[in-house]
Prior knowledge:
The protein is 30% helix and 21% strand. The protein is α+β, with helices and mostly antiparallel strands. The chain has one domain (3-82). It has a two-stranded antiparallel ribbon with strand order 1-2. The longest helix has 20 residues, at 3-22. It is elongated.
Amino acid sequence: MHQSQVEEIRQQLMLELHTALNSDLAPRSENSGRRNGRFCLSCTDQVTSDWLRSTVDGLTVNDSENGGTNCQRQLTLVTPSEIPKLILAEVYDSGTPPSVSV
């Protein structure tokens, strides 16, 4: 996900947020941003999580691959439990790893 796509999602969510506020719903989140190629948003309560799920179902983002024609991609809400955990590993070409003193 590119920074321009993150900004597009933020703008769409802000429009939806203003609509929700006008209907007496007050979605709340703590932080948001791009992490590991995903746009992440931390909901503060279940009402916000439910609102976000229903809102994201109707959102799309512009996507142009390798300078090709623009197309719209449907966004999908994924919960933390659905995201595979990243495993950290280090691979050394040869010799002593830099963290080991000789």
